[in-house]
Amino acid sequence: MTQNYPPFRGMAAKRPGGPFVNYTFSKIENKTRMKLNGKSQNKSLLRFTTAGSVDDGKSTLIGRLLYDSKSIFEDQMEHIVQSGKRLGRDELDLSLLTDGLRAEREQGITIDVAYRYFATPARKFIIADTPGHIQYTRNMVTGASTADLAVILIDARKGVLEQTIRHSYIASLLDIRHIVFCINKMDMVNWTESTFTKIKEELGSLVDKLKIPDVYYIPISAKYGDNVVERSEKMTWYEGQTFLNLIETVEIKKNKNPDFKRFPIQTVIRPHSKEFHDYRGYAGRVAGGVFRPGEEVTVLPSKIKSKIKSIDVLGKVLSESIEGDSVTISLEDQIDIGRGDMLVAGDNMPVISQDINLMICWFNECPLKVGGKYIIRLNSNEAGCIVRSVNYRMNINTLEDDIKNISINMNDIANITIKTSKPVFYDSYKRNNNTGSLIFIDEGTNETVAAGMIV
Amino acid sequence: MKTTLNINDEHLKELEAEAIFVMREVAAQFENKVLLFSGGKDSILLVHLARKAFWPARIPFSLLHIDTGHNFEETLQFRDELAKEFGAELIVKYVQDSIDSGRVIEEQGVNSSRNKAQSITLLDAIEELKIDVAIGGGRRDEEKARAKERFFSHRNEFGQWDPKNQRPELWNIFNGRKNTGEHFRVFPISNWTELDVWQYILNENIKLPGLYYTHRRKIFSRNGVYLAWAPFMQLKSNEKVFETDVRCRTIGDITCTGVTLSKATSLEEVISEIAATRVTERGGRYDDKRSEAAMEDRKKEGYF
Predict the structure, then answer these.
(1) Which of A29-43, A87-101, B203-217, B259-273 has the lowest mean pLDDT?
(2) Which of A14, A404, B31, B263 has its CA 20 to 30 A from that of A208?
(3) CB A449 within 8 Å of CB A366
(4) How many CB pairs under 8 A join A and B?
(5) Are A22 and A71 spatial neighbours (Cβ–Cβ below 8 Å)?
(6) Contact assignment for B56 to A19 by CB distance below 8 Å
(7) Which among B4, B55, B167 has CB closest to A447?
(8) What residues of A are in contact with residue B277 (Cβ under 8 Å)?
(9) How close, in Å, is residue A271 to chain B by CA atoms?
(10) Are residues B283 and A314, on separate chains, in Cβ contact within 8 Å?
(11) Do B55 and A315 touch (CB under 8 A)?
(12) Which of helix, strand or coil describes residue B89?
């Protein structure tokens, strides 16, 4: 059925096999292919988020990426075709692939994050397709919070918009270190280099202001596929990588802060069985650095010191565990440790304090109350808190602090100061995302009302 | 036959660590915990991940099976053996009981299935046993409504999902707070794809029911899907039952589980076939073919 339905003009030649079959890189340079082959035995995972409104062609870009990399199945394609017909769309609408909720398809907008998956021989990708509309900022933040890389689409006809600034700001606030600006709809500006260069320059000053460390600019046409998977024949003046090639090769540091050794404890494992009568293990996921048996650790908040006796997973003893590993650690000494406590090592101790200054993104319809009490959750730790002050609200369209307007409503970003009900231990978000991030929970409704990044 | 696929250890390791992290959060944040066990590969995978997460302690969840009564025989046997091997408590609730008590009106006609009725039996079980969290093997790559699901998915006191108003879920900080009577559905393998599941099963040498490998079975064709035949199923006049070599790609209620013609006897062969397929896993699931938003609607009512 897909045979009869070419989704776009200028579509790439059909490749044999199903979506999972490793396709060949017909147009990708030999050098790159060698590099990819060398790596392909051990595929890494890249999580990226896409931002931009429906009109920017975001969903079309994802559709194009999935289509050209053979990641759409026949029944999915059939589904999009039928769905499009029902909705009276003239052209095949690949956004129907990601807009999974009834309301989204009817209204033609993205309300909540949709996750999509695809793989090439080089990498495996998780796409968080996030809504562009300001009223769904909280869902955008949800999708972006776990991303290694952010893709921001810009309509070549319109250039940098307020929305572009807002999305770039949120990406930088969440410490996403790699941003790809896709200047889309190049087909509608006659593929002119000058249009691309002008937008690139405009973005350059934004990037400087936001101090984003790793930035890329690609002129594309998601509709026709130029520079998405296949190199554009219309824009020979562009010498950089295609979008797919870029996301396949961009280097992502998984262990961002090796010097901040952190192990928050989720739960204590005590088997109470005959065989493991004295076993007492601390289960958690390494939130920074590397831990090794024999290493001296400090338990927070008690500050008692001990040594790591063993690190294991299902009976397998490990010689080390690095950031991101879910393991169980046993200590030499019997100490009273529970959920919410943290093992730390090395010279860089977290801050232990009851006062926290942080940036927040407010999610709830009910505005933030100065003097209001909330519950915060920081790793596995939970505490009460009272909002001491709102220091400024960020005007995310102009990137200026707005100190006059300090009423904080849904989707606002602000700098606030809180006092916690007990001393908590943390790092600044820029130093360690895992131990510098927290959520606010409303005691009455149990809803997650804000995300916080410690300054 | 040798598989042409690479074993992608690095990304599987990350997915495993994520799933174990989520399971441990469940253990710490909830009281009455069950793992929804269907006998299918995803729920078998969940049990293995749970064992890894809590070893050497026992799995801190009971296994809950919602039994439609329309099963593949082999699944039940496998279920009982697995529960015994891992020392997990097994709770079985029967859709037949819900029908007998008048809670469920059984669908009639050739396309009738008890698949949808499972939701009511499940919600009744959740209420009766005061379950506050049910871990499920749902994956976001399975279906478009599932692509929208959070790891920690809130259900109100009626067991309903409100997809338009989900709690924001930031980083890996999960908020499982709730009021009495409400519960959570948690999906630790949200980010796994079908192929990830199979490759992990291969890497970890996880035992699966024989149904996933080639076997002789009586089947018939309906709307382009091969369905396993069982004595209680009604056939249309043009449908003929015949016997051939098949395997299951998913296992669920027998009335809505499609089978694949296959001679694959090993995991490697199964994976090669799946890697070359042009249809999604749920393409053979009759329950999703009912309407555009079939899964979204069922999920809102309390389906897995």
Answers:
(1) A29-43
(2) A404
(3) yes
(4) 190
(5) no
(6) no
(7) B167
(8) 18, 20, 73
(9) 4
(10) no
(11) yes
(12) coil
Residue B228, beta-bridge partner list: B219
| The pLDDT of residue A256 | 74
Chain position carrying tokens 């049910």: B134
Domain of A315, CATH number, reads 2.40.30.10
Region for residue A371 given its phi and psi (left: phi exceeds 0; alpha: psi -120 to 50; beta: otherwise) = left
Q: Residue B17 and residue A326: Cβ atoms within 8 Å?
A: yes
Domain count of the fold of chain A = 3
User: How many residues are given for chain A?
Assistant: 455
Taking CA–CA distances from A16, the nearest residue in chain B reads: B276
Contact B175/A83, CB-based, under 8 Å?
A: no
Asked if the ipTM is above 0.95, the reply is no
For residue A82, give the CATH number of its domain.
3.40.50.300
- pTM of structure: 0.88
- All domains of chain B, ordered by start, with CATH? 9-196+292-301 (3.40.50.620), 208-288 (no CATH)
* Structural domain that includes position A153: 2-249
pLDDT tens digits, B192-245: 998 899 999 999 999 999 899 999 999 998 887 888 888 888 888 888 999 999
Q: Closest Cα of chain B to A252: distance in Å?
A: 13
Across the interface, of B5, B6, B296, the residue whose CB is closest to A101 is B296
Angstrom distance (rounded) from CA A69 to CA A61: 12
Let me know: does A378 contact A438? Beta carbons within 8 Å.
Answer: yes
Angle between helix B194-204 and B267-275 (nearest 10) = 160
Omega before A301 within 30 of 0, i.e. cis: yes
The runs of H, that is alpha helices, within A87-192 are: 102-107, 137-144, 162-173
A254 inside domain: no
Give A380-391 pLDDT, tens digit per residue.
999 999 999 999
Same domain, residue pair A224 and A306: no
Contacts of A336 (CB under 8 A, 6+ apart): A302
Please list the residues that pair with B145 across neighbouring strands: none
Chain A stretch 145-184, residues whose beta carbon is closer than 8 A to a beta carbon of chain B:
145-146
* Contact in structure between B302 and B160 (CB atoms under 8 Å): yes
